[in-house]
Amino acid sequence: MSTWSYSLMPDEQKRELCLELLEEFGATGIQETTKGELRHRCTLPIGAHTDRNSITASVNYRKLVFRCYVCNNRGGLLWWIATNRGENTEQSEKWLSKESGVSEVLDLPMLLKLIEALARPKNTEVQPMPTYDERILDSWRRWRIFHPYLTLPISEGGRECPEVNLARYKVGYCDEDVHWRYHQRIIIPLHWNGALVGWQARKLLEDDPEPAKYRNTPQFPRDRTVYGDLGERDIVLVESPLSVLRHAHHLPMVATFGSAVSDMQIPLLHRYRRVTLWYDNDKSGWEGVYSLIARLKNYVDLRIVDSPWDADPADMTEAEAAELVEGAIPYMLWSKPMTLTHYERAA
What we know:
Blueprint: H1 11-24, E1 31-32, E2 37-41, E3 55-60, E4 65-68, E5 74-76, H2 77-85, H3 89-99, H4 108-119, H5 148-151, H6 163-168, E6 172-174, E7 185-192, E8 195-203, E9 214-216, E10 227-228, E11 234-238, H7 241-247, E12 253-255, H8 266-269, E13 274-277, H9 283-296, E14 301-304, H10 318-326, E15 329-330
């Protein structure tokens, strides 16, 4: 892997790159400061902005970061590009390297090195954490009730998530979206250290024009955060935020956004006395359990939920989930099940 860092690029080249991007996004009246900031009117097409006519935003071309002081949204260069274009960062990487006018500012090898360094930075050059204004969530929480998909009994097609959990995690629903990015999707915000750092939009309809089950905000920081309340000494670690929303009122559940856990997430788990793993009963879930056993066994009291069912925690009642967690076994006694029992709840 290349050790090239975007800090090695001359400031003048980074300045020209940012100026070209500002032109692409329609920014006018740009003011430059001695600190490397290019100040301009905010162009981000997201909520919580009360002043579109004043110069409130800036791109620092030395650090390649963006911030608006009115809508309080901020992040790195690829995040800024993706947010302006209403896409994910992978699409922005492709656009930046092949389709945009900025490729004329830098030669292609230099531009590709820059994109690689911004998307997959070295440990010494940590990617900025995206941060959003809390008011963005307001338009998705206008309903007096939560979406029936979340609250109805499982026997009626719902997920039986208690309203106390949905309110606690500020879950919403997008019933209107002119860009069709999140239209008719459940909005699951992610907060970290008291700040809104992104959200997942969960698909509900089969005819949704976006095929992905989850649509995340650009540079969604799943690899350096977890979902749930971190205040407990013991936690039950699961894959899905939906399991947290189903059981957080009676179990200290925390989710890792899937079975793959990054090296940046592991230190977050070392703080606990006991970690009880409850991953899905499938190949990726079992591989995730084996990986976490190797990386956590020397640091915490590690237990495994030995479930015979093919269901995940979100499909179970409080009593069923509590019983399985109570019966969790020490990690050295666990092995993946040879067969699974089809899970059917009594109506």
